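Why should sequence recovery work at all? Because a backbone constrains its sequence more than one might expect. Tight turns favour small or flexible residues, buried strands favour hydrophobic ones, and helices have their own preferences. The token representation captures these environments compactly. In the example below, the structure is given first.
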């Protein structure tokens, strides 16, 4: 992934948190039949290996399984929020439109798991992550075995110990604070949830204002004071001190 230095994100804890938040990702492999892709939910084992390990499951009938069984290296793409950015939102409008977005690329060699009880444990974990928090009445462990066993035979679980983890968070780091504020304000006025999510991540990257001894000044709203409205976004580092280009 082409990532100019200002947009690089090396904060592995944040990347893991975002991968959990954007967990429906794209698994890509290349084999004798060319490139193949499957969209899957992933679990993130952050403490397993130097960059973590991804866990998912795939239908045995999926042709991509042949690549996985052959040990084809895999790329998993986690797509974060994204938004079109108009120059009309900048103070300095002598520039061009762009796109703000976050994406994470995770690479590793998949390990296929076909033993039924191991597959069951991974399915149970997946249910605990995605279904149990909903508080519904359905329970995986209450399903009849004659229904579960055929499903276990039709599924192969996958573990991907990660060799590399690459984050790109492109949020107008090459612009002035005033220009970024203009972008954030415009995105927050939008009715689009994705635009709001980009604004959230941008606000969390703005430096916290210094404390003021002026009581009146302390009452004025700031970028930092708006953070509490966006509790669901992953934590993020601030902008680099010397932003670079506007390259994508």
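From this structural description, the recovered sequence reads:
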């Amino acid at each position: 992934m082409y990532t100019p230095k200002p947009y690089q994100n090396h904060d592995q804890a944040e990347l893991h948190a975002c991968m959990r938040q954007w967990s429906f990702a794209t698994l890509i492999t290349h084999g004798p039949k060319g490139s193949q892709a499957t969209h899957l939910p992933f679990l993130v084992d952050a403490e397993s290996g130097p960059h973590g390990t991804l866990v998912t499951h795939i239908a045995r009938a999926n042709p991509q399984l042949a690549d996985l069984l052959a040990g084809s290296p895999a790329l998993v793409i986690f797509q974060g929020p994204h938004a079109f950015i108009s120059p009309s939102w900048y103070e300095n409008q002598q520039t061009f439109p762009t796109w703000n977005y976050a994406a994470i690329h995770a690479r590793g060699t998949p390990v296929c798991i076909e033993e039924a009880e191991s597959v069951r444990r991974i399915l149970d974990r997946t249910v605990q992550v995605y279904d149990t928090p909903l508080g519904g009445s359905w329970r995986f462990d209450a399903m009849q075995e004659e229904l579960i066993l055929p499903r276990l035979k039709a599924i192969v679980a996958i573990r991907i110990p990660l060799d590399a983890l690459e984050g790109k968070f492109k949020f107008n780091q090459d612009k002035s604070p005033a220009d970024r504020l203009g972008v954030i304000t415009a995105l927050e006025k939008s009715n689009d949830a994705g635009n709001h999510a980009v604004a959230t991540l941008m606000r969390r990257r703005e430096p916290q204002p210094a404390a003021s001894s002026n009581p009146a000044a302390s009452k004025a709203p700031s970028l930092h004071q708006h953070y509490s409205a966006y509790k669901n976004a992953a934590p993020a580092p601030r902008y680099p001190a010397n932003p670079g280009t506007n390259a994508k």
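A few observations help interpret the result. Residues 216-247 have pLDDT under 50 and may be disordered.
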